[in-house]
Structure formats: structure tokens, C-alpha cells
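Feature request, filed as a ticket because there's no other form

It would be nice if the structure record came with a short human-readable summary line next to the C-alpha cells. Right now we just get the raw output. Example of a typical job, pasted below so the devs can see what we mean:
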Amino acid sequence: MSESVRLVCPAGRKYVELWGGYALVALGAVVAVSGSGHWASIILGVILILGGATAAFDGHRIKAPILEVSEDEFRYERGSYVVRVPFNEIGSYYVLPGRIRSLGLCDHTGRPKRFPSLKSRRTSRTYLPLTGMTNPAKVESFMAVAGIPPRKRSLTA
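Raw output as currently delivered:
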């Protein structure tokens, strides 16, 4: 593989907070301007603008998981948490179903690889969290392009 392959997982909460925050800012501006100078409508407009700005700011801070495979390594990035695995150490993968999907990587013998925890906890985990909106078919096609087989096929080989 000569180029890197990249998949950015969609973060639904990010978009909801961004659009909701911008809508509250616009609504607050309309309420404050159209309130005909009454103090209650101006205060309500300012509160809506501040709430919307807070929600939009929080939406901008949410980092979506990024999967990237280059010719020599697999990389998972979510904010400041970065996992790098040499490409030749990955034998297969599996996607954990559920409300928040996760990606597990296995070595060539089929044992799950262990990763450090996301929030500096002492435990380690055998999977990398994705988002709930991540389509498993997209993850499977991403891994197929990267050349990593699913776990069920690699164990029989």
C-alpha cells in the first residue's frame, strides 16, 4: 500500500451541539432585537445567546475518532489519545456491536491486542471505541482497503 487510508468516524453529538448552539444564538438574537426594547426580552435573548454559544463551543471541542493505515502502521486517534500499532503485528480485526461500536485488533494467532485506557485509568482494554453513528460496513470496507482480514476469516486460515 503506497498511500495512507483514513476513516473519520461521525460524531452525532458533535453535530447536534453545533447546530443546536448556532440555532440558539440566532433565536436569542431575534428575541433580543424583536422584543421592542423590553428588558425581559433582552435578558431572555442574552441568556439564549450565552447558552447557544456554550453549546457550540462544547460541540467544537468534541473529537471524533480517526482510523488511519499507512504502509508501516495502523493509527487510532481520538483527541490527544493516539494508538500506533505496527502494521505487520495486526493479524485480523473485529467490530463489537452495541450502542457505541468498538474496533478490536488481533495478532496473527488470533489473540486480542491490549491498548491503554482512554482516560488514564490503570486498566487496559482490548478494543478502541468508535462512535454510535459509525457504520460497521464502512469499518469493514476501510479494513478491506487496508488489507486487514476480519477475525473469523483469519482464524481459519
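Something like this underneath would help us a lot:
The helical segments are 12-34, 39-61, 136-146, 151-156.
Residues 73 and 86 are 4 Å apart (CA to CA).
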